[in-house]
Amino acid sequence: MTKQGYMQLALELAKKGMGRTSPNPMVGCVVVKDGEIVTQGYHEQYGKYHAERNALINYDGDLKGADLYVTLEPCCHQGNTPPCTDIIIEKGISRVFIGSLDPNPKVAGKGAAILKEHGIAIETGILEEECLELNEVFFHYITTKSPFTVIKYAMTLDGKIATASGDSKWVTGEEARRHAHMLRKKYSAIMVGITTVLQDNPLLNCRIEKGVDPVRIICDSHLRIPMNSRIVQTAGDIPTIVAYSEGKPEKEKQLKEAGIELLRTSEPDRVDLPELMKELGNRGIDSVLAEGGGTLHGSLLKSGLVNRVYCYVAPKLIGGREAKSPIEGRGFSRMDEALGLNKTEILKLGNDLCISGRVDGRYTGQ
User: Fold this and answer.
1) Do the Cβ atoms of 51 and 41 come closer than 8 Å?
2) pTM (two decimals)
C-alpha cells in the first residue's frame, strides 16, 4: 500500500469519532511495520486518549522501526491526556507521516519538531487537503474561538422551502432527510428561530443510529416559546439554550425550571447574532448548524457568520409569490455582487440533490 493509501485509511478511522470529539479534532492513526499494518486507532471521544495513543497501547509487540501515519500533527502538551509525542518516542517509532499540521498554538509545529529532535523522520502533507477538510470545524474554531456556522435548507426546483400556507412536510425524500440528520450528528449545535418552533413544533434531535443530539439553540427575541412545546418539554434530556433580547421574569423563571439555559444579548429588539456566536464559542461550542427559515439564514449571512451551505434540492415545483424562500432580507441589487460558494460538491440522494460548498467572501446585503 502507498503512503496515500495508509493515510486514506487513517482518514476513514478518524471519521468514526464524528460527533463525539468536539471541540477536539477527529484524528485517525495507522501503524505499519515491515509493510504490514500492525495496529490502528482513532480519537473516540473528547477527554479520552488521542488516536496515536489508542493505536500504540493496543499492540503488545515490538514497534521499533515502525512507521506511523496520522491525519493531524501529534500533540506535545499535557491536556486531558498525556502528550502523544511521548508515547511515539517511547515506542521507538522510526518515521511519522502527518496529514496536516495543527494550528493550535499549543502545538503548531512543535509536535513535529520534538519528534525530529529525537531522531524520528517526519514527512508532512500526505493527503493534506483531505485532512484539512475533515477538520474544517476544528481549524476554524481553534483560530477564531467562534463556531463554524452552517446553514442547511431543503427547497424545490423553483427555490421554495414551503408553500404559501407554510406547509413544508416534506420537500425532500427519506434519503435526503437521513443525510440531513448526519449533519446534526456532525455539528455540535443546531439553531432555529422562534417562527420555526411556533409553526413546526420540532424536536431538533438526531434520529439516526448511534446519533448524537446536538445542543439546541433557539433565537427567540421576546421569549415567545410555548411551555408545552417539544423543545421545552425535553429540555431536561437535551441541552437547550434560548437566546433572547427581552423577557418577563415569570417566563424566564419557568423556562429555567424546565431546564432551559437562557442567554440574553444586548440588542433591545433582536438577538444579536455576532454576540451570540461569540458567547457560544466561549462555552466550547465549536459548530452551529442553522436549520431555521429565511429570516434566520438571511440574518446570519448579513452578519458574515456563515462558513458553509448545504442546499437540498427536490424535483418539485410549488410556485406562488407568497411561498417561502430559503434566504430572506433585501439581498443584493446586482448579480456580480452575489455571494459565491467554492469547493462545491453535488451528491445525489434518491431523487434529490445535495449541493454544498464553502462560503466565498462576505454577504453585504440588507
Assistant:
1) yes
2) 0.89
